[in-house]
């Protein structure tokens, strides 16, 4: 397993001004986990096809946020990327291994997967779906690009 701290997010007050934060169009519940189907761009589609995998129609992005989440503030983000050794999905590790501790420390946790496990679990599959989740984070919270 690998967990990567990628930085901070902050949305300015834009999401708060719009009546609540949304991740890929899905309302964010402080202290909760949000799942959203997100598109794969051309590069991400190329990555997930590594090893002969069929490209899924979308990736599944999962975001967990702490109880005090306020999109107008900056937050550290932990990205969950599992190894293929034990046939685990990134989102499962987010929920079972990282969520509780990360949220208690004020971190967001992000993971990306395919809708179903890959036929051939490759680093390209993991990278492509994780990058799609990161893209969704950046679209949802433009300040996260910094």
Q: Can you describe what's shown?
A:
This protein is α+β, with helices and mostly antiparallel strands and 146 residues long. Helices cover 30% and strands 25% of the residues. The strands form two sheets. It has a five-stranded mixed beta sheet. Strands 2-3 form a two-stranded antiparallel ribbon.
Sum this structure up briefly.
The chain contains four helices and seven strands; from the N terminus they run βαβββαββαβα. The protein has helices spanning 14-17, 42-48, 90-104, 123-140, and strands at 2-9, 22-23, 26-27, 33-38, 59-64, 75-81, 108-113.
SSE diagram, text form:
Elements: E1 2-9, H1 14-17, E2 22-23, E3 26-27, E4 33-38, H2 42-48, E5 59-64, E6 75-81, H3 90-104, E7 108-113, H4 123-140
Parallel strand pairs: 6-7
Antiparallel strand pairs: 1-6, 2-3, 4-5, 5-7
Helix pairs in contact: 2-4
